[in-house]
Amino acid sequence: MEDKILQALECLKSDFNHKFDSLSNQITTLSEKVDSRGNQINTLSEKVDYQRNQINENTQILMALEHLTQVNKAEHDKMSFDIAEISGEIKAFGKSLSNIELITANNWGDIVKLKSIR
After folding, report:
1. What's the DSSP call for residue 21?
2. pLDDT value at position 8?
3. How far apart are CA 108 and CA 117, in angstroms?
4. Is a pLDDT exceeding 90 seen at residue 69?
5. CA 49, CA 38: separation in Å to the nearest integer?
6. Is the pTM of this model over 0.90?
7. Residue 9 has what pLDDT?
8. Is the pLDDT assigned to residue 49 strictly greater than 90?
9. DSSP structure class, residue 118
């Protein structure tokens, strides 16, 4: 009877060892999967960091472009004002030139009259 008990215990021990090895293998497999997921998370984290840096760089570029746009608009407005001022001066010069032509024509008429009187 002791042999049967020892044999039963040996079977239980063998069965226990087999199940323990199976659980150990499953734990190892799960550990490898967790490590793999950890590596994937690290990769995703690096990608997010890269995108964050890219967004910050793009934001700085956009802000610089907005500033340049404002400066360009101010220069454009100043040029428009200067052009309007020059246009007004040219029109005034044209009127003055017309007056000079009229006065010159009158003077030539007076010169002709004076020559005819002589």
Report:
1. H
2. 83
3. 14
4. yes
5. 16
6. no
7. 83
8. yes
9. -
Enclosing H/E stretch for 29: helix 2-117
Integer Cα distance of 32 and 38 in angstroms: 10
- Tell me 13's DSSP state: H
Query: Average pLDDT, stretch 29-48?
Result: 96
DSSP state, residue 91 = H
Confidence label for 100 from pLDDT (cuts 50, 70 and 90): very high
Q: Record the tokens describing residue 9, joined without a space.
A: 């215990």
Take residue 54 and report the two structure tokens written for it: 């890219």
For residues 103 and 90, what is the distance between their CA atoms, to the nearest angstrom? 20
Amino acid at 54: Q
Give the chain's radius of gyration (CA, Å): 50
Structure-token pair, residue 63: 């802000």
Q: What is the C-alpha separation between 80 and 91, in angstroms, rounded?
A: 16
**Angle subtended at Cα 115 by Cα 109 and Cα 118, rounded to the nearest 5 degrees:** 145
Tokens of 110: 């007076």
* Cβ-Cβ contacts under 8 Å for 77 (sequence gap 6 or more): none
